Amino acid sequence: MAGKVVTISSGKGGVGKTTATANLGISLASLGKKVVVIDADIGLRNLDVIMGLENRIVYDLVDIVEGRSKLRQSMIKHKKFEDLFLIPAAQTRDKMAVSPEDMVKLTDELREDFDYVIIDSPAGIERGFRNALEPADEVLIVTNPEVSAVRDADRITGLIEAADKGPGRLIINRLKPDLVKKGEMLSSDDVYDILGLKIIGIIPEDELVLSASNSGIPVTLNMDSKAGMAFNNVARRLTGEDVPFMNLDDNPGLFQRLVRFLDGR
Amino acid sequence: MQEELIAIKGVNDGLLIALSTTEKWQSVTDQLAARIDEQSDFYNGANITIELGARPVPKYELSSLKALLERRGLKLSLVLSESDTTRNSAAALKVPTKKNGESGAPPPSKQADVQETAPVNPEETGTYGTMFRRTLRSGRTIHSDGHVVIYGDVNPGAKVIAAGDIVVWGKLRGYAHAGVIGDESAIVCALDMSPSQLRIASHVVTSPPGKRKRVVPEVARIRDNQIIVEARE
Predict the structure, then answer these.
(1) Where is pLDDT greater, at A254 or A189?
(2) pLDDT at B104 over 60
(3) Is A162 part of the contact surface with chain B (CB cutoff 8 Å)?
(4) Superfamily for A4-263?
(5) Quick one: three-class SS letters along A45-108?
(6) CB distance B156–A151 less than 8 Å?
(7) Which domain holds residue B77?
(8) What secondary structure, in 3-state letters, does A5-36 show?
């Protein structure tokens, strides 16, 4: 089996890379794929927290790379999914502890046993980003519909193209449809207009994401959440399925509601 | 006028500076410093390739040249030389180096590799230009001492700086400076002209805020001592 290495990146911090990584990992696992997620943000780990696996950590990425632990014993199995594993970042070291070549070696080994290796890239364009980019077969770029996040996404898209990993696909996270309608937030079309990247997912703003992250149960496991559904759709598109984009409009006008009613929805 | 000891050419996303191989090192570097200071706008932030020919340059001389460039905000990204001494000096300073003529064209940096630029060789005499067949994304800067043609967009955060004209077959939303050495006849054209800042020679304008209703190809040029932008249909 030759698995696919997918790197989740953004340039700017705080746009939702780790949330996206955790949710994609779980969505892919729930589709029956064998998945390992790697936290490449050495020194500032938090993928384990969002996945609710913090208290199970014994070894981390740096231990594996430096040969202190075996790959198999360092991977943490998810509580709910048999085929979902986490390789956590080290807390006490920095990004220089791992080199891009180390990451390639590690992911080549993981490719043998897994369908998807998902790497959570740190913010920035330095070593940590290079570590996450080097082994990637595909890069998903997370951005928010705001000018500064789009600018950074553009910057790293340039770097991704220069490293021959391009062009990458885009996840637009935390979109607020009502603000877009009022013209106060960039729409997905505006973002596409600047970046020219294929969009693989549009995730609406959803308070459930925050509570889910805090409780360590990613939002995809919550069927009531629009964001959760949107992440599920991203995972399905990643596997090659053709999934239509969902309607994010929360408060349809009377006419639209009538149409939907007549449509039997 | 003093004899020209240096020759400057635009290559890929940087500049190639060939220094005289015979003249005294001191006079060459003095003239280089003076040239850069004269037109600091043009050079600012550029990647510099230095061609030294057969002259053996010891480490201390090369290191002072590197410092001279760095003080002016320029990065010495490559040293071309036929002399082993010079190449050893460069290696000691951790500056990439190559033998002259290796692979023909001046070796681009890793990123520049992907820029796919080709120097234009007109049959008729004219100013040469550089063609970029891709979108310039944020953080990317192009310098040219000829014209620049971009088949793609210039995104916000990207910069195009040229001694001649700038033609963007796409959206110009970044920074563009044409006629940077002072050519007031330089023009900037774009299919969608909404630069963050547009300069021609020493004039500056910014785009009016807000979205435009109708997007048409436009040309910017200097008329009556100010930059005007006109539709070109």
Answers:
(1) A189
(2) no
(3) yes
(4) P-loop containing nucleotide triphosphate hydrolases (3.40.50.300)
(5) CCHHHHCCCHHHCCCCHHHHHCCCCCHHHHCEECCCCCCEEEECCCCCCCHHHCCHHHHHHHHH
(6) yes
(7) 6-110
(8) EEEEECCCCCCCHHHHHHHHHHHHHHCCCCEE
Q: Do B137 and A151 touch (CB under 8 A)?
A: no
Q: What is the CATH number of the domain that holds B202?
A: 2.160.20.70
Tell whether B156 lies on the interface with A, counting CB pairs under 8 A.
yes
Question: Are B218 and B120 in the same domain?
Answer: yes
Read off the pLDDT of each residue in A205-215 and give the average, rounded to a whole number. Answer: 89
Instruction: Answer whether residue A122 shows pLDDT above 80.
Output: yes
